[in-house]
Every structure is written in C-alpha cells, then in structure tokens.
Automatic annotation (TrEMBL):
This is HhH-GPD domain-containing protein. CDD domains: ENDO3c. Keywords: DNA damage, DNA repair. Coiled coil: none annotated. Residues 104-259 form the HhH-GPD domain.
Length: 278
C-alpha cells in the first residue's frame, strides 16, 4: 500500500482545522477502480464483502444504501448516523469551474476568497464564461489587479493549458477511474491530494473517498473509536476499511462529529467552496 503525498490547503481558516500543514507528507493511496455491477447490500453484509458501487451519491436511493450498509458494518458509526441528518450532495457546475475556484480559495479566509472570486467572475463575464481559453487569455497582471497572486495565476494558467492541450477535459474527468483521476489532477500545479479528495467527494460525489490527510476526519476517527493518538494515513486506512465502499459518507459523519464538538468548521462551508457554489 502506498503512503499518501503532498497537499496544499484550500482555505486558511478552514485548512487550520482540516490540515496541520499546507504541505502534508503523505503519498496518495491507490483507490479501487469502480466496476459496473449492481450493489447487493444483504449479500455484502452476510459475506463481509462490500457492495460494488456504480452510482454517485446524488443518484436516487444511493445515500439510503450507504447508510444501510454503514449501520450494518459499524455499530459506533450507526449511533452517529442516528444523531445527525443524512448527508446531502448538491449538483455542481463544471469540473473546470470547480477546480479553478478551489485554486482561487487556497490559503485565504472565506470572506476574502469570495471577494476575489466575484471579481474573477466579473472579469470573465460570469460563471458560464469561466472556460479554459478565457482563463488562459487573462494575463498574470490582470489577475494580480483583482487580488490573485502571481503564483495562483500560474496555477490557473496551468489548469487551463492542460484543458486546451487535451490532457484534461470535463468529459474525461467524469469518465476516469479514481486512481487515474487522482494522478491527473495532482499533476496540475497548485492542486494537491487534499484538494482532489474534496473535489471527488463534493463535486463528483464519489462514494468511496477517504481523505487521509484531512485533520477533521482524522480527529473524528480518533474521537469515535477512542484512539490514544491522532491516526496517520495507514491507521486511517485500517480503521475505516469497514466503511468501504462508502468511505465518503463515513468521512462526512466525521466532519459532523467534530462540528458538533465545536472543533471543526461546518462541512457545508467546505462543500460550498469545493462545489464552486455562487
């Protein structure tokens, strides 16, 4: 099993709760490729084999299947599920827009990031105009004038250029298996493992993502299972294996747990940033 790699945080006031450093010394784990069979919860539970997932979490009934499975395999998580409302995952704009926004929000307080993002939209003429060729045509100087650092400008241009060169596209991102998607997105300047995990959960609604570098999820696992120490990547993989293939949902409840304890920001705020909600 590979150890997870470097990541950068998305928002200063959020990342302080989710990550101990903007450079997380982890290597990304390999995520199993999704295959196309219909999940059978009852058989999966009885044989201790997880159901096979083919649908995003926004597909009708998928959250119910996830909660049924998690209640059956993890009594501690079942109690937490009963104490909180079910997770919701809203529709998102294009992957390119979501990724561009995640870059703009990096290492900034939410209020400042929203202001810069709105100026970015005004510069381009609205969210529907946030397209690779349009972003590529904006000079670093123009971006600097609206509050975007030269470094982030280079990140935006690298993302746009990878789209224009055919390395990435919205269609290919939606079709890639998890492992390939992780490798391709982390090849973009300024997009690290944490950002990719959040994008996969909140923008693509993938069911089986475990953000091992996220401090909120790690603290939740420590609290839920009474661990003596904050779990590292390998311990997270071990403890949360029982959630597979719904580790995204299990992670969602870890955020809720820490939010209730007042030690983590509202997960809806993270979702709003990653989803590129206006």
């Amino acid at each position: 099993m590979k150890r997870p790699s470097k990541t950068s945080t998305v928002v200063n006031d959020i990342s302080q709760n989710f990550s101990t450093s903007s450079k997380i010394p982890f290597r990304p784990r390999k995520i199993r490729k999704i295959i196309s069979n219909t999940p059978d919860i009852s058989n999966a539970v009885s044989s201790h084999n997880p159901p096979i997932i083919v649908k995003p979490l926004t597909f009708q009934g998928e959250i119910d299947l996830a909660l049924q499975f998690l209640r059956s395999t993890d009594p501690l998580l079942a109690t937490l599920i009963d104490e909180h409302r079910p997770p919701t995952f809203d529709s998102c704009p294009s992957p390119f827009l979501s990724l561009a926004k995640s870059i703009l929000y990096q290492q900034l307080a939410v209020k400042a990031a929203k202001s810069i993002y709105n100026r970015f939209l005004s510069l381009l003429g609205g969210e529907d105009r946030v397209l690779p060729d349009a972003v590529s045509s904006i000079s670093p100087q123009q971006l600097r004038q609206i509050g975007v650092s030269y470094r982030k400008a280079s990140y935006l241009h690298d993302l746009a250029n990878k789209y224009m060169n055919g390395v990435l596209s919205d269609d290919s991102i939606l079709e890639m298996d998890d492992e390939t998607l992780f490798e391709m997105l982390t090849s973009v300047k300024g997009i690290g493992p944490w950002s990719v995990h959040m994008f996969m959960i909140f923008s693509l609604h993938k069911p089986d993502v475990l953000p091992v570098s996220d401090l909120g999820v790690r603290k939740g696992v420590k609290a839920l299972y009474g661990l003596e120490e904050l779990p590292g990547a390998l311990k997270m993989e071990e403890v949360c294996e029982k959630w597979r293939p719904y580790r995204s949902v299990g992670s969602w409840y870890m955020w809720r747990l820490m939010e209730a304890k007042g030690t983590s920001p509202n997960v809806d705020a993270v979702a709003a940033i990653v989803e590129a909600a206006p």
